[in-house]
Amino acid sequence: MSNWKLTVRHGSDVSRERFDDLDEAIAAARRAADEVIAEGPLKKVSAIRDYEPASIVNARIEITGKGMFRPATAGLDIQGDLSVIPYAGGVRRQQLDGSDLAEAMKSLKMFLSE
């Protein structure tokens, strides 16, 4: 049975993969983030009001551990301006350290390794 689940939500697409090893899940999350970033920034969206790229979530990449009650969960939000916001927790989220992708990935690994 797999210990880690990676969920990637990018636009209307949702993909899920399972991994036995945390390092494999982290590497797959990094590859997914690199793919999103390679597409370039989003444009401003106008609908009822204007949304700047920094306020639009382009992709959400989340790693969840095994367990029924409060499994370890952490992930990245990649904004439309390609900034990265690492977080921990599912429903109640707390922002983790990391102002760039490399630092954010280190924060995810440290949180999920505990």
List the helices and strands and how they pair.
Blueprint: E1 4-10, E2 13-19, H1 22-38, E3 45-47, E4 49-51, E5 57-65, E6 73-79, E7 84-88, E8 94-95, H2 101-113
Antiparallel strand pairs: 1-2, 1-5, 3-4, 5-6, 6-7, 7-8
Summarize the structure.
This protein has one domain (4-113). The chain is 26% helix and 38% strand.
The rounded distance between the terminal residues' Cα atoms is 20 Å
Number of domains: 1
Number of helices: 2
* Average predicted local confidence, pLDDT: 94
Uncertain runs are none
Coarse shape = globular
What is the helix/strand order? Answer: EEHEEEEEEH
Radius of gyration: 14 Å
Strand ordering within the main sheet: 2-1-5-6-7-8
Describe the structure.
- This protein is α+β, with helices and mostly antiparallel strands and 114 residues long.
- The protein has one domain (4-113).
- It has 2 helices and 8 strands, in the order E-E-H-E-E-E-E-E-E-H.
- The protein has a 6-stranded antiparallel sheet with strand order 2-1-5-6-7-8, with helices on one face.
- A hairpin with a 7-residue loop joins strand 5 (57-65) and strand 6.
- The two termini are 20 Å apart.
- The relative contact order is 0.19.
- The model has no long low-confidence stretch (mean pLDDT 94).
List keywords for this structure.
114 residues; alpha+beta; globular
